Amino acid sequence: MNSNEYITDIIKAQKKGIAKGIYSVCTANEFVIEAVLENAKTEKNFVLIESTCNQVNQFGGYTGMRPCDFKNFIHNIARKAGFPAERLILGGDHLGPNPWKDEDAKRAMQKAGRLIKEYIMAGYTKIHIDTSMYLADDPGKGIERLDDNLIARRGAELALQAEKSYQEFKKKNPQAEPPLYVIGSEVPVPGGAEEKEEELAVTGPADFNQTIDLFKKYFYDNELQEAWKRVIAIVVQPGVEFGTDYVLDYNREKARDLSSCLEDYQNLVFEAHSTDYQQSELLRKMVEDGFCILKVGPALTYALREALFALECMERELLAGNREKLSDLQKTLDRVMVENPADWEKYYDGSKNEIRLARKYSLSDRIRYYWAEPEVIEAANRLIKNLESRQIPLTLISQFMPEQYKKIRKGLLSNEVLNLIKDKIAAVISDYSQAVGVQ
């Protein structure tokens, strides 16, 4: 079975009333990706890992990686984890003109087309096309929502570029799978909301149907009938979100009218963004209601942050008499964030102390943008090295990582530092595995 067959089988099962799905890991953090792959290694399922247009693009994005680089990055981690490359699915998230939305439409769309091409030529097979944002010379900017016709027309233009790129890619790679598409204009903000929301309106059936009708029209206008058959999902707003210190939980009743719309479409399911921090039983309900593709990212790096901060507490206890050897990870992180505030400052407000706490503990987890900074890498490596050179007392693990302590006592986990970190991340993955029917 190839990756396209795996995903289409999920959709077929869903249409038969079997609650199946797939979770999508949206991160470039090596710790997280390795934990995800190790967790899935013994299962016979595929793993979907996605990169966004801001994260990875033809200019390097904020990771410094182009699509081909990200592919190699993921495959190298897979080899290290012993995970079969044939069970990896690479997806492109929010692919469109968003990184260049301050430029005029012609220039921004040209760059978006090049972005799509590089993703396809790198072998990505799940493509989320996102053209929902205003561009610099679009009329009505800041006054009203971008016209749905324009969103769909631009989306079809990028799909045409994807199809042309796939034909070019296939000439050198005859076994290459054609891209599967995700469309939709009601796209939540990547990485969590900037302002606190009390409640989000669930996508209405009329908006859902109109989006499909318009995208289909423009796909057909561009002679993309075959590509339209490979549109597998639509991004909608199920009413879930998270921010600095809150989570909006899924409410099945409020999403019931939207969910019922899927009965009219035999090959479509929903893709849900911002599902981070949803309770496990709510994730399962989402899958049962047709939200078969669950995107998760910040919750995984949040778990990584919790693990490393807990380990630093243990380090301070163990090296209390050797202050100069301490990693000072938290201090280093905060200093680097304060010196380079672009990736967090618009997300956090309040008093000086409230902002300080948000930098460290926010559910938005803007810390995730700083783990690759050289000083932070050095501090994290020192922390791990300090603890690897010692036997961590179970009493400290009990104090600072109680769930991992319970597993150690049951013989389910060893107390090596890296295992403690990965198990913290795996606890989040487990909720998603159960929700999509893997476990």
Description:
With 439 residues, this protein is α/β, with parallel strands linked by helices. The chain has two domains: 294 residues, Aldolase class I (TIM Barrel); 130 residues, putative tagatose 6-phosphate kinase domain like (GI Alpha 1, domain 2-like, Orthogonal Bundle). It contains 16 helices and ten strands. The strands form two sheets. The protein has an eight-stranded parallel barrel with strand order 1-2-3-4-5-6-9-10, surrounded by eight helices. A two-stranded antiparallel sheet has the order 7-8. Helix 10 packs across helix 13 and helix 11 runs antiparallel to helix 13. The longest helix is centred in the middle third of the chain and has 25 residues.
| Silhouette | globular
CATH architecture of the largest domain: Alpha-Beta Barrel
Order of SSEs, N→C?
A: HEHEHEHEHEHHEEEHEHEHHHHHHH
* Structural class by helix and strand composition: alpha/beta
Instruction: Return the CATH class of the largest domain.
Output: Alpha Beta
The gist of it:
The protein is α/β, with parallel strands linked by helices and 439 residues long.
Topology of this protein?
Blueprint: H1 3-15, E1 22-26, H2 30-40, E2 47-52, H3 67-81, E3 88-95, H4 105-121, E4 126-129, H5 148-172, E5 180-183, H6 205-221, H7 225-228, E6 231-235, E7 241-242, E8 247-248, H8 252-260, E9 269-272, H9 280-288, E10 291-296, H10 298-318, H11 329-339, H12 352-361, H13 374-388, H14 394-400, H15 402-409, H16 417-435
Parallel strand pairs: 1-2, 1-10, 2-3, 3-4, 4-5, 5-6, 6-9, 9-10
Antiparallel strand pairs: 7-8
